[in-house]
Amino acid sequence: MEFKNVNVVKKANVYFDGKVTSRTVLFENGEKKTLGFMLTGEYEFNTGAEELMEVLNGEMDICVAGASDYTLYKEGQSFVVPANSSFKIIIKTFADYCCSYKENG
C-alpha cells in the first residue's frame, strides 16, 4: 500500500535512544499518520488522540492501559488505543508499523 498526495516531515521522531523511530505523514484532508520501526525492547507510550496501530511487518505484544494481559499482533493485524491512555509494547525481533491518529473533538 502507498499514500498519494502527502507531505512528509523530514525530521524523524526518535524515542528510546533510537530504538523506536518514525516519520510523520500529513494528508491534504488534515489526517496525520506516522510510519515507524521498532527494534527489540520493551516500551511504553502515552496517547493524546485515539491511535490505530497497524503492524506492517514483524510482530508486537501489546498491553493497553487497564488490560491485565498482553496480546500478540502480527503482520496485517491492528489494534486501537483510546485517547488519553497508554500502552506497553514488547518487541522480540522488530516491528514495522503505521499509526493513524483520530482527531479529538
UniProtKB/TrEMBL annotation:
Its EC number is 2.4.2.1, 2.4.2.2. It catalyses: xanthosine + phosphate = alpha-D-ribose 1-phosphate + xanthine; thymidine + phosphate = 2-deoxy-alpha-D-ribose 1-phosphate + thymine; adenosine + phosphate = alpha-D-ribose 1-phosphate + adenine; uridine + phosphate = alpha-D-ribose 1-phosphate + uracil. GO terms for cellular component: cytosol. InterPro entries: Ppnp, RmlC-like_jellyroll, RmlC_Cupin_sf. PANTHER family: PYRIMIDINE/PURINE NUCLEOSIDE PHOSPHORYLASE, PYRIMIDINE_PURINE NUCLEOSIDE PHOSPHORYLASE. Catalyzes the phosphorolysis of diverse nucleosides, yielding D-ribose 1-phosphate and the respective free bases. Can use uridine, adenosine, guanosine, cytidine, thymidine, inosine and xanthosine as substrates. Also catalyzes the reverse reactions. This is Pyrimidine/purine nucleoside phosphorylase. The lineage of its organism: Bacteria, Bacillati, Bacillota, Clostridia, Lachnospirales.
